[in-house]
Specification:
The chain is of the alpha/beta class. 26% of the residues lie in helices and 25% in strands.
Length: 287
Amino acid sequence: MSRLYGAQSMVAPLRRVLVRTPDTAFGSADPARWHYTATPDPDRARAEHAAFVALLERAGAEIIRHDAPLADRADAIFVHDPVLVTDRGAILLRMGKPLRRGEEEAVGAALEAAGVPVLARLSGAALAEGGDCLWLDERTLAVGLGFRTNTEGLRQIQAALGAAVEVVPVQLPYDQGPVACLHLMSLISLVAEDLAVVHSPLLPVPFWELLRARGIRMVEVPPGEYAAMGTNVLALAPRRCLMLEGCPVTRARLEAAGCEVLTYRGEEISRKAEGGPTCLTRPVLRG
């Protein structure tokens, strides 16, 4: 029987991926409450999302739909954050953003329906979001510690993964404070095992040194394109990636590093809601 799940990599070929179509909650989001730049246009958002998903399908990924009703959960379109998919099943996280609590079990149900068992659930004082979890390789998980993920969340993730995986804590900067969303993956995306796009000015020095020691070459995202989510890049396969249009310098630097770069239009689903292609996808099977 072929594998249905296992995604302990950021860059291995994307085979199965979970997505969520923009719903009424997303299309009616109050920008002040959800920290959006503006309320998304529902029709344009659905059209952008359909085109985005079509790119994933053309890249060879099987699409898993998570369309269960979730009232008053505008951010539920960003399916990356409530869960971590491992080679032994899904770890349901516990969202650091209070408005998103309750998404975890809904995503877990969608994954179980797709053949992915639930390995563990975070509980108690634990907080963790998927955007803070970065696989450096299949046995090394970097976890950002900030406003969305705390030390108890990291501890419970480590307990669920067991001794086979080393969890490396990465202290995140204050940046814009607790209201804004700063994940570890806001600062870095891997596009191959030895290549990453980064915004170095906000990377903690010990983590930057770890990347260098592991032989990871870093493609720098300039400040203007960092603000435009230039660091938010989804690897479809090693050196084949998908990013939001409108970051020409970063795209050129990736191409100069040997990458094939695809882009999508995301004025509604990404720019207004401040979530890029990694946020919009939860890889279920890679490799």
